[in-house]
Amino acid sequence: MAEVNKIRTDKKVSTPEMIVDLPTTIDDTIKLQAETLLRDLDVNSTTWSSPVDNVVIWRRRVRSRYNDDLGHWEPIPERIDRENYAMVIIPAAQFVNLVLAEDEANLESHVLRMKRHFPNDTIIYLVQGLELWMRKNRNIRNRQFVSAVRSGLELPDEQHPPPPSSQPQQQQQHAPRRRKPAAPQTYVDEETIEDALLQLQVLHGLLIHHTTVPLETARWIAVFTQHISTVPYRRQRDEANDAGFCMETGQVRTGDGARDTYVRMLQEIGRVTAPIAYGIAAEFGTVRRLVRGLEDGGPLRLEKVRKSVNKEGEASERTVGQAVSRRVYKIFTGRDETSTDI
């Protein structure tokens, strides 16, 4: 019981529950690096034949079930459940080809295939190397611009020096062969690619993540594994927080001891400053004594309590006053469970 009720919103605790299924079509470099990173996280990885190339999915070893009535996790016989996440890894060149394709093998058709095979999953498109491709694409545009400018500045034919007509026959035979000119590269309008990315997010509601090299792709497989491992526990915590007021550790600074916590609690009341809180704590050392004092003395019991000038409780000449006394009295002695006074 204690084991299954550990705080599993910590990814270090929840990650070893995960099993990562890597597709058989994934690049060998990514596969080897991902397996190494997952092994370091105590995560098992296997391979599977994905209906769509390069799709990573996740499974979980489930050993507990949350009991809503009792408000805690209970151990159950271990089973393996499929997580509702599917991540497809697409190199930049393939992504661009999908965007530019005009036949059935286009990006729209790829998305529909993903949704058909993974209808209940949150689909993630991990595009590798698109930033590098964008830089190369801009270089093509710049070269084309420079070439166009130079072609417009060429000299007329009569100003070009005539080519040498007399060369030894032997030199002509042994002249080095010139390489064939490379095929001209085509510039792709960047707005077309950006529009495609926007459509994936806005029209299809998919998640998109970018990486640069295979090592980064493998690292993000591990990062997504850690994040997905905490999802059910964070969801259950959020639902519990919605049912009642609760804050995570660290959002409110805790006291160094019982007295410091008592003083900080008093300062959460509106208009109760630190000098007033220390003065009240000096007069009534505990919450129980404060409540009894207010019940016996009435709404103005704290009116003449002197404020404190320091943490040691040294009193000053100024007093708490009637307004603050009535506010504290109403909060500590009120019986209205719907009251929001503080």
From TrEMBL:
GO molecular function: crossover junction DNA endonuclease activity; DNA binding; metal ion binding
CDD domains linked to this entry: XPF_nuclease_Mms4
GO cellular component: Holliday junction resolvase complex; nucleus
UniProt entry tagged with the keyword Ribosomal protein: no
Region (Disordered): 152-185
InterPro entries (alphabetical): EME1/EME2_C (IPR042530), ERCC4_domain (IPR006166), Mms4/EME1/EME2 (IPR033310), XPF_nuclease_EME1_ascomycetes (IPR047521)
Localisation per UniProt entry: Nucleus
Protein name per the record: ERCC4 domain-containing protein
Originating organism: Staphylotrichum longicolle
